Amino acid sequence: MAHPVSPLARPFPAIPPIAGVTPRVARAGYKDWGRCDLTFIELAEGTAVAGVFTRNICCSSEVELGRQNVAQGHARALVVNAGNSNAFTGYRGREAVEAIMAQVSAHLGCPQEQVFVSSTGVIGVPLPKDKAKAGIEAALLAEPCDWQAAAETIGTTDTFAKGAMAKAVVDGRTVTLGAIIKGSGMIAPDMATMLGYIFTDAAVEPGFLQQLLSAANQRTFSCITVDSDTSTSDTVLAFATGAAGNAPLSSFDSPGADAFAAALEDVCRQMAHLVVRDGEGAQKFIAVTVSGAVSDESARKIGLAIANSPLVKTAIAGEDANWGRVVMAVGKAGEPADRDRLSIGFGGTWAAREGQPLADYDEAPVAAHLKGQDISIEVDLGLGDGRATVWTCDLTHGYISINADYRS
Amino acid sequence: MAHPVSPLARPFPAIPPIAGVTPRVARAGYKDWGRCDLTFIELAEGTAVAGVFTRNICCSSEVELGRQNVAQGHARALVVNAGNSNAFTGYRGREAVEAIMAQVSAHLGCPQEQVFVSSTGVIGVPLPKDKAKAGIEAALLAEPCDWQAAAETIGTTDTFAKGAMAKAVVDGRTVTLGAIIKGSGMIAPDMATMLGYIFTDAAVEPGFLQQLLSAANQRTFSCITVDSDTSTSDTVLAFATGAAGNAPLSSFDSPGADAFAAALEDVCRQMAHLVVRDGEGAQKFIAVTVSGAVSDESARKIGLAIANSPLVKTAIAGEDANWGRVVMAVGKAGEPADRDRLSIGFGGTWAAREGQPLADYDEAPVAAHLKGQDISIEVDLGLGDGRATVWTCDLTHGYISINADYRS
């Protein structure tokens, strides 16, 4: 973690152990750094799995195999490599992933497709098989670790460890959801957009877990952006061990399904926000709320056009209530909008209403709001009931420094 | 012109007077600056006009009226206001444009729809009618000026005056094309993406002029991007006075039509490159050539995904041959691509071929190339014959400084 801690960082939450989940970390030495970089998480037999993956079509072998293997619904282990994404490495990259899957499945006596692998870091260098093998052997001998150690180990350019926790009462039992996530650049909402893992002791049928994760993803991870760039490795996996002993959730008709779905979405939203809070060079956390659109999806697309606009992001970095740039971004989104019905505000104060600057616009509260760390931009299109909130960070000198120096 | 001159600047070319075109400049005082900011260009009777305009749906009244008026095919005058874009100003903004059109048409005794108006600068402040009126009166009394003075006057945050020139032999006569353009931020290829004006003494039927301009636009202005942000005011207009006396060009069957079309596209490409060369904070001019795509349009879209990627642009700023980021950008473009057929090079040297890093990759020539000012990125998709080149600049601290400080 070479860069200074983000000013928007949040402390790591107290996540208790999750029954049926055993995290361990080790040093594989993928890069020349003095830290653990391999995370090995063992999962109890019968653990259900669901996943969402990057839509980048130049995705890594890890993503290809993960997408394929999630279909059978069960998982026994997760291996996360940090420092090497193994993307764009051809058959050698694929062989490295398959070797990890074979090694772990032999150790656990489980089908190979129940071993999930993620890698993140530099693109184009095949993951060294020997380092991975030795790293896994070391992890198998290591003591189990806490969630913070696991979160630190999956990180790369992250400046702080990120975790989330929620509880829900399901079928009379309290179930726990714990999650870790990494990611700070190459973040755009076209699926998972980072590596994130959710673990719960709840019993959930794989198909229903997938349904819930996909729905939560659409309102959380798919609503964040740091720099509009979509990684080749993005993955979010959810694992449900069933150790809590509740009657397995199989649909919204199952008792407690609503509570579990809410807790899952809560954890996803916390994780998504943390990724934005560690956006490269971020100084401000920005929520863009678009209302009055023709549909929720249209509102989301307009929100992302605003959140991805370099001119809007630099204006916020400069604490400038430049609503004209917001107008521009609305207009370029390719979604229905009417210039003369558009209203734009900052921190709850309208700067322009129905296509014109407000005659009695008082800039003082807006200026005060923009000096803070948590910024809100409100856009009302005045067309319909569609609504969405997306989250991003400002674009600063820090982003340039980090990315013009990062070595390929 | 507050910022230092771009290191990529080009000297203003020697553009001769164009018969039938009379430029004048004046000081309207739209901003508190000691320079001319109103350009008035009178055109001979019978001048044909064609135009391409921003697709931003929150466009200015100038764009709305210009798009409407270009349909009747003729022009007698062009007025360009600098410092105030008059966008998002409701009915008051529209009134200001109509007042200018009325004033000029009364003076010239021409239909109002033959007066074209452009404005650029801050969004959201209605163009002050009294200043425009006085500015036009001053311009009418001014001596005609040269093209460099006109190019300087239409500029806003531009750091150097931009012009282009070409000649063609049409129907046995040498015709001249002279052009001026402004633009340095809020540049993305969704039509014209800046204010540009082409003047020629050739005789061209309006419909054919429009056909040629639209085609040239697709291969030039629609192939550049600075920051992916699409202005609400972008406009390119072409004016053909006919003073050269050639038999009017009406289709590609007209003698000299091909030569004229080539000269027009040449001028458009020169102008497009100049806009990129004045991209905010630009230190390097980048040409991205995509070949082997399923179509030219697919190649263009992939080229723009690369050219708009903040991670690619910062890598070039850092002189880092980070082809992994190029892979990422290809994969997020949403166009057909096959990771295992993809080849990527810099300055004519392949770094990766068919989905894998080159075993004998020699980074020395690439490193030397990246230290220069003119950078090329080559991408071969290995799928078909589609091909396109797009142009952009790097993303630097200068962009952040300019845009985090620019006041709304």
Automatic annotation (TrEMBL), chains A, B:
Belongs to the ArgJ family. It comes from the Bacteria. Pathway: Amino-acid biosynthesis; L-arginine biosynthesis; N(2)-acetyl-L-ornithine from L-glutamate: step 1/4; Amino-acid biosynthesis; L-arginine biosynthesis; L-ornithine and N-acetyl-L-glutamate from L-glutamate and N(2)-acetyl-L-ornithine (cyclic): step 1/1. It comes from Novosphingobium ginsenosidimutans. One of its GO terms (biological process) is L-arginine biosynthetic process. Keywords: Acyltransferase, Amino-acid biosynthesis, Arginine biosynthesis, Autocatalytic cleavage, Cytoplasm, Multifunctional enzyme, Transferase. The gene is argJ. The active site is at T193 (nucleophile). InterPro entries: Arg_biosynth_ArgJ, ArgJ-like_dom_sf, ArgJ_beta_C. HAMAP family: ArgJ. Heterotetramer of two alpha and two beta chains. Catalyzes two activities which are involved in the cyclic version of arginine biosynthesis: the synthesis of N-acetylglutamate from glutamate and acetyl-CoA as the acetyl donor, and of ornithine by transacetylation between N(2)-acetylornithine and glutamate. Its EC number is 2.3.1.35, 2.3.1.1. This is Arginine biosynthesis bifunctional protein ArgJ. NCBIfam families: ArgJ (TIGR00120), PRK05388.1 (NF003802). GO terms for cellular component: cytoplasm. One of its GO terms (molecular function) is L-glutamate N-acetyltransferase activity. Substrate binds at T156, K182, T193, E280, N403, S408. The keyword Transferase applies.
